[in-house]
Specification:
CATH topology: Rossmann fold
Number of helices: 5
Strand content: 15-25%
Radius of gyration: 17 Å
Strand order of the largest sheet: 2-1-3-4-5
Oligomer: single chain
Structural class: alpha/beta
CATH architecture: 3-Layer(aba) Sandwich
Order of helices and strands: EHEHEHEEHH
Amino acid sequence: MKVVILLGSKSDAEYAGKIKEKLNEYSLDSETRIASAHRTPKHLLDIITGYNNDKVIYITVVGLSDALSGVLAYNALGPVIACPPDISEWKAMAEVRTPKDVPVALVEGPEKAAIFAALIAALHNDGIKAKIREERRKKAESVIADDKEVK
């Protein structure tokens, strides 16, 4: 299973790096690509076609007008997670306003996007599933310890 992080422009590379860093914690193979649904639609479709025989989870990192996520979701054969870096500034979110047969999951924050991708990959990977369980166990222990401390 592979995760393809698709950027609308190079300016989002640092944000995408945070996603890649979290994906590495789950030993998930990932690649970062750049394409624009507006400026390079043929290039975008070529990228998508290149992955359609693989098991791929897509994470899009696009600001402002996000046509990329919808075009990707319709043409790709894997789930699409939109993770806009400027989500707090958005009033109209193109990611969630797609036709009913073009599903895009909108996730806030690079770590959450990576964890969501890991949860999808865990459906077919017991190692990733075990890692997620262990992380959650540790978090639960921490909350319980904090509760005892403030009691």
